[in-house]
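Have a think about this chain, tokens included, and walk me through the fold.
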Amino acid sequence: MKKTLFLLCTLWCGWQQAAAQKEITLKGVIRNPADKRVIVANLSASQLEQKQNIKEATLADDGTFTVSIPATEAYNWMVILNGRQRSDFIAPNGAQLTINADAGNWENAIQYAGKGREIPEFFAAYTRDRGMTVAYSKNTQDLGRLEPGAYEKALDSLMADEYAYLDKKKATIPKDFYTYWKDYIRYMNYSAMLIYPIRHEMIRQNTNNIRSIAPELYAVPQKVPAAFDDKFLTLGPYQSYVESYFAAKLNAAGFTNVLRMDPTNNTEDRSQALQQTDSILQLLYKTTPKKTAELMAAKAIQAGMPTWTTGEMQQRLAAYKRQFPKSPNNEILESVYKDAKKFNPGEPAVDFAFTTIDGKPMKLSDLKGKVVYMDFWASWCGPCKGEMPYAKKLKEHFKDKKDVVFLYVSIDEKEDAWKKGIEAMDISGIHTRTPGWQGEIATRYGISSVPSYFLIDKKGNFVLKKTPRPSQSEELKKEIEKLL
């Protein structure tokens, strides 16, 4: 499960960058405030690496405040926070908004006035009426249980319903925002079609570890057109669409990444491990517009590097630089490469100090002499929860092996939620917590999604570039047993 903040950034970035970005100004009053501070963030994300765009102000005694924050897109995904109260809205470039809010009835009582108010007003109404596009995404997920024909009809109906709602609001919003929102929905539907085969099988098989997909399911993604256009690059669903498009088409043809074990020496055969990835990169370079290729190929390489060997990283990074020698992404990818090398097999595991749930101070290096299976997780993470029953069986298999240790590192912000999660799922092992994505341990290990797993041998070195999940039980058992 990806970082929530960055997931929202991707889902809500603006449609097109304005030629000259201006500041967005917010002033107003918060009645019954939960905190003396008000925090405003612009979460729009259309670059490989985003700089924090957050401003803070202190409420006056009468609850008034003023904040100015840089716009980065034509339409900016904004968040305003007061204590635990949060409101999400979209603000156009150069908006000068006046906000009237009651922290005791935040979403229902917030009102907008001033230049650019039409768009946040639309979004507030949309949130009340339809539950934000997160609800729309949830609806498309729920439809994944249907067979192909029924799925397509239901998805078409869902999109038509969205368009009908938008048409009712057409007279109240700017013409270009109407177009933006329509394209937003269109690419959300394309993305839903592209991931349908995997989603359907995950629901049908009741597992995240899909072994096979029925060929007839690919009839749905095969109908998605090639609709690449740089003007949509800052549109989150467009990025999701590009990320999924070529993989879905290649999957339909049975052309995937294949990683095998060489039985002669019990090592990985990686000769075809990146064959689909390489095809996707070449298709991006050759068939998509320049800016789309530059960003989306960089994102694919950035996402893949943590699981690639040093040679694989070097080769694909060099190819990217040949395509885009002046890209600002080169420096970012170089940094990712340097960090990823730290986790290669045979490299010493990054040490860290921690305190167990029982209050015992420890370091990872204290566990040398034992095989350590390390699991980064969170109590709110659905996929993490899905892996726990498999982990329980795995621990039962190794219960008599005192030199196998299961170390759980939670990124829960709240200690109470962490402890309740352990108790509710009956998770045995060594437990510690590194609060949030910016916690010290999560930062040292470059954790950007959970669950994330690491296998460490008795010498304290990393074993695998990509450690199997507990649900990949047979593969994981073999890897652990080789180390005993």
Observations:
- Residues 4-125 form a domain with the Immunoglobulin-like fold (CATH 2.60.40).
- DSSP finds 16 helices and 16 strands in the chain.
- The chain has four domains: 4-125, 131-224, 255-341, 353-482.
